[in-house]
Amino acid sequence: MLKIKALYANNLFLFSLLLLCCTISRADSIQNNLQNNSQDKAYIAIIIDDLGYKYKQDKRAINLSKAVTLSFLPHTPYANSLLEIANKQGNDTMLHLPMQAFMETNYLGPGALTSDMNEEEFKRSVKKSIVSLPHIKGVNNHMGSLITSNTKAMKWLMDELVKTGLYFVDSRTTVETVAEKTASDYQINNTRRNVFLDNELNRPAIEFQFNRLIRLAKKNGSAVAIGHPHRETLKLLEEKIPQLKAAGIKLVPVSQLIHKQILAKLKQKPRNITHTYMPAKIISN
User: How far is 200 from 190, CA to CA, in rounded Å?
Assistant: First the structure.
């Protein structure tokens, strides 16, 4: 009888030990899943603008990561050859469309949209710039504080973009911009710039803006930064991009970030309300 009790006790102990091990293993698995999921909750997109004039520096920008989005100025010497390299690598590529600013202190370059254009001239220029850069997935504005704050001009732009399937990124060079809103009115996939990395060209300033980008992404789920192919910017990004995963941040192309932002907005809608999709009314002046 004592032997039976001892055997029973041993078996019970072994069973309890096995159950405990399974519980610990499952807890570890759940914790790992939570950590993995938390890493996927914050996304950033980094756009490098002004590409097409300097082959060596622009090529260095392409080499940063295939998740970096690259925006090319139209009708520039190296735009097409660099764009082919970027597309073969798998980067999102964009048209960096020059637009007139309030302060005309910088050279706009070919393909610029200006306030003295009529509707036909404006739209013809947009089409020409889009056609000049094959494989692009989106458009963002180069400068453009004057044009992006002009509702009529933005409607002319979206009249053309809505035909192409390209997404739009509002670079937000002015707080008076109506570009993002107009793109949404036309139901064009779009997002906005949250951080300029290199308005000040020194390491501490660029690093401050990069850290601000990370904070915004963790707070809001996603964030977009725009930088330029300056040596200081590229050096910092070469160091920081490999560290993003450990920080719980995922770098994605702009097209993916827009998709994730759309899904996040849909999840925020009350489930007890039925939403009917209605095309936006498009008004052309």
Answer: 27
Alpha helices in 118-150 (DSSP H): 119-132, 145-148
pLDDT digit string, tens, across residues 3-39 = 444 444 454 444 444 444 444 444 444 344 434 444 4
Residue in 59, 145, 167 with CA at minimum distance from that of residue 98: 145
Residue 242, both tokens: 């490999």
Which residues, in sequence order, are CB contacts of 171 under 8 Å at separation 6+?
49, 140, 141, 142, 144, 148, 193, 226
**Rounded Cα–Cα distance for residues 222 and 141 (Å):** 21
CA torsion sign for 279, 142, 83, 196 is negative
CA distance 112 to 76: 12
The whole-model pTM stands at: 0.80
Paired with 227 in beta bridges are: 48
